[in-house]
Amino acid sequence: MDSDASLKCKTPLTVLIIGAGIGGLALGTSLSLSGHTVTILEAAPEIAEVGAGIQIAPNLARILQRWDLLGELQKDGVVLEGNSLRRWSGGEEIGRTEFGGHGGVEGRFGVPLMVAHRADLQRVLLNGALRAGCTLLTDHRVTTIDLNLTKVQLSTGEWMSADTILAADGIRSPTRAALASLSSLPDRPLPTGDAAYRVLIPRSQMLSHPDPEVAKLIDMNVGIRWMGPGRHIMAYPIKGGSVYNMVLLHPDTSSTPTAESWTQRGSKAEMLAHYAGWNTTVTNLLEMVPEGEVMEWTLNSHAELPTWIHNNTALVGDACHPMLPYVAQGAAQAVEDAAVLTTCLNMVQRKEDVGDALKVYERLRLPRASAIQRSAATTRAALHLPDGSEQEIRDTQIREASEQAHARPEGDGGTKNPDMWGDRAWQEFMWGVDVVGECVDKFGKVLEEVRGVRVGRVGASTL
Fold first, then answer.
1. How many Å apart are CA 33 and CA 12, to the nearest integer?
2. In this structure, are strands 114-117 and 78-79 parallel, antiparallel, or unpaired?
3. Residue 448: pLDDT band by 50, 70, 90 thresholds?
4. d(CA 290, CA 303)
5. To the nearest 10°, the Cα dihedral for 390, 391, 393, 398?
6. Burial group, residue 351, by CB count within 10 angstroms (0-12, 13-18, 19+)
7. With 50 as the cut, is the pLDDT of residue 313 above it?
8. 372 with 326: CB under 8 angstroms?
């Protein structure tokens, strides 16, 4: 464990966390490790394994390493050696970003770029939180929150209070709705026009397929991104290579849009129709998906909130900055929130200062998370270009950027890569930032700004 992970909070606080998703469990882990008394309230009767593959980007892996959890996740995760960008029709490779080797991701950022099943990340965080002393209460649904008195009411009628309440209960968070209402902001989902399928294909099926191109994908620790008009597919092995994960972005043509839920069933026939005419590797993969195992959900954007906090209550993760999947940063940004919020609360000298610490958290996190949230639209446009002159220019840029990065693995990358994962400048912004270190460095100055007065030196304690 990193040396700063053993440092404890200045003032132990009682903390209520709403929601036991990635953000809530990350908070439970980090705050409990720091010495706070933490209770997570989860509405579901049990913590279920839901979702599919997610990216464990270096900015997320670095924080897991700080909490001594990265090794546990690596047992089931897959370290990606590269990302291959391919045409939709013939399947030919346009460009390739190398993540391993000389000048690779781990060498530059200190941790690898991994992919894993969401349930594996959730399990690792849950175990970490419980080991650290966090209390998890399932079947505890919050129905009312009092933002002035820092307390919540459960569906049973019981009230619970704490020094601070942290809402990590997703895009339909009642706390998000309450904060939006205070700002007179209509908080309605805005359709992007896209929907997404998620499918998982067992290793045994792929190895037995007669197409050798299908069979070899499961043993390639490489992300494959097929790009086509109005659509793209991202695919890679997870769970130690025992399952192949695919996410398929496509126009939402349903007359009754699907819910914003990972557990909504989709139609295999409709999925095959969306990708009819794509290369045979793609169509062979999709043919193997069992009936009833296609998940689909509508992709909506949500307005940026003017504030994530009120008094001693704060929003975390999708509750404050819901991320579309085009940049694969939803889990990473929720965990960054947890790490920075813990760092801010660790620096509190008196319980009366909790509100100021939450303001520092918002000042530090809102600009970065909002920039990443907005980048989704740019990424979507680049990946979904129709065939034609713009697409040809994009492909040329990807090819040139890939060749330059291969020739100069430690260089600046030269040509800007329209694929964010392959663009050196974007990698530095997304993956190279140590948000905890920045928080420690900037906390005192930002605290002065939010108070509007000069304050004395603040001790730096962090996980």
1. 11
2. antiparallel
3. very high
4. 37
5. 140
6. middle
7. yes
8. no
How open is the CA angle 331-84-325, to the nearest 5 degrees?
25
| Count of residues in the chain | 463
Contact, 101 vs 9, CB < 8 A? no
CA distances from 261 to 41, 144, 229 (A): 20, 23, 25
The alpha carbon dihedral of 161, 444, 25, 187 has a sign of positive
**Who wins on pLDDT, 325 or 278?**
278
pLDDT band at 236 (very low <50, low <70, confident <90, very high): very high
**Long-range contacts for 436-442 (Cβ within 8 Å, ≥24 apart)?**
436/4, 436/63, 436/66, 436/339, 436/340, 436/343, 436/462, 436/463, 438/364, 439/339, 439/340, 439/343, 439/344, 439/360, 439/364, 440/343, 442/364
CA distance linking residue 299 with residue 250, whole number of Å = 10
Q: Write out pLDDT tens, residues 421-443.
A: 888 899 999 999 999 999 999 99
Give the tokens for residue 157.
Answer: 């009628």
Asked if residue 172 lies in contact with residue 259, where contact means CB atoms within 8 angstroms, the answer is: no
pLDDT at 412: 62
Q: Which residues carry out catalysis? A: 198
Task: State the pLDDT at residue 259.
Answer: 55
From the CA atom positions of the chain, what is the Rg in Å?
Answer: 22
Instruction: Say which amino acid occupies 342.
Output: T
pTM: 0.93
pLDDT class for 55, splitting at 50, 70, 90?
A: very high
What is the rounded distance in angstroms from the CA atom of residue 276 to the CA atom of residue 72? 40
- Can you give the three-state secondary structure of 345-380, one letter per residue? HHCCCCHHHHHHHHHHHHHHHHHHHHHHHHHHHHHH
